[in-house]
Write a structure and sequence with these properties.
There is one protein chain. The chain is α+β, with helices and mostly antiparallel strands. It has two helices and nine strands. It has one domain (7-140): Peptide methionine sulfoxide reductase (Metal Binding Protein, Guanine Nucleotide Exchange Factor, Chain A). A six-stranded antiparallel beta sheet has the order 3-4-8-7-6-5. Strands 2-1-9 form a three-stranded antiparallel beta sheet, with no helix packed on it. The longest helix has 9 residues, at 28-36. The radius of gyration is 14 Å and the shape is globular.
Length: 142
């Protein structure tokens, strides 16, 4: 979970949090990515080279997002997955920033920015969910 707080234990609905509460809950890097739609530099995130088995959760609210079973080495510099743990775990939005047309991926529970999805991944989906490590927490299998 986030170093600042354990979101799962927080009973307040994440959608009802003020920006001040988000700033108190998240590290500055997590806030920049999750709440401001930022991106960490390639190959700098803590989960790029993580090969442990477990579950990736939203660093903002603790919602389960991705399984290590769907993680793959994309060479992009960000943790990449072929699909979310459940279709309803994420929401997708057209992003036309920086003169590009991309599909932004957000946590469906707290609306935090996670990264983008691209149609250049391996089977079975052909998708590459390219996520920021700062937007994720990892729960290893026991």
């Amino acid at each position: 979970m986030s170093e600042q707080n354990d979101p799962i234990q927080d009973e307040k609905d994440p959608a009802a949090l003020s920006e001040a509460e988000w700033r108190a809950r998240l590290s500055p890097e997590q806030y920049h990515v999750l709440r401001e739609g930022g991106t960490e530099r390639a190959f700098t995130g803590r989960y790029v080279d993580n090969h442990d088995q477990g579950e990736y959760r939203c660093a903002g609210c603790g919602a389960p997002l991705f399984s290590s079973d769907t993680k793959f080495e994309s060479g992009s510099g960000w943790p990449s997955f072929t699909q979310p743990e459940a279709p309803e775990a994420v929401s997708e939005h057209v992003d036309v920033s920086y003169g590009m047309r991309r599909v932004e991926v957000r946590c469906a529970r707290c609306n935090g920015h996670l990264g983008h999805v691209f149609p250049d991944g391996p089977g079975p989906t052909g998708l590459r969910y390219c996520m920021n490590s700062a937007s994720l927490d990892f729960d290893p299998e026991e």
